[in-house]
Amino acid sequence: MGPVNWIAVILAANLAVAVGVVWYGPLFGGGRPLIEAKDQRQPRAWGLVIGAMLLSATMIGHNFARVGPETLHAKPWLYFMMSGGLALAFVAPALYIGLARYGVSRAERVRDCGYWIVAYLAMGAVFWALG
């Protein structure tokens, strides 16, 4: 196992949050922002968003460290296959089902799942660029 690229972890998490700001803002700003909170709790809410992305990026970084730099250098598509695969196989289905239980419209479920898939692919791109 190679070392976890902690710089890539931090940059990947921040890029995922930035993607969310754009995704729920100018791109698909359909009335629901990335995070909603009352005025007093806004900094805490953003801390939770960044913390969740740091956790996700840490797990992706750990996965890449387990694969090893030699394999990733020989097969760079693994960065996108692994990060996108996590989002497609685990995150998006769990989110889609969870939102469906609360009566969220199909369009919003697809938009939310799309964000997570794109965010995970963006995190994979950071690890690839800094690999």
Strand count, sense and closure of the main sheet?
Answer: none
Order of helices and strands: HHHHH
Which percent range describes the beta-strand content?
A: under 5%
Structural class designation? mainly alpha
Which stretches of 5+ consecutive residues score pLDDT under 50? Answer: none
Shape by Cα distribution? globular
Cα-atom radius of gyration:
15 Å
Q: Helical proportion?
A: over 70%
Give the rounded overall mean pLDDT: 90
Structurally, the number of domains stands at 1
What's the β-strand tally?
0
Individual helix count = 5
Terminal Cα separation, in Å?
14 Å
Assembly state here?
single chain
Produce a short descriptive summary.
By secondary structure, the chain is mainly α.
Explain what the structure shows:
It is a single chain. This protein has 131 residues and is an all-alpha fold. It has one domain. It has five helices and no strands. It has helices spanning 6-27, 42-67, 69-74, 78-101, 106-130. Helix 1 packs across helix 2 (42-67) and helix 4 runs antiparallel to helix 5 (106-130). The radius of gyration is 15 Å and the shape is globular. The model has no long low-confidence stretch (mean pLDDT 90).
What key phrases describe this protein's structure?
131 residues, 5 helices, mainly alpha
Q: Secondary-structure map with pairings?
A:
Layout: H1 6-27, H2 42-67, H3 69-74, H4 78-101, H5 106-130
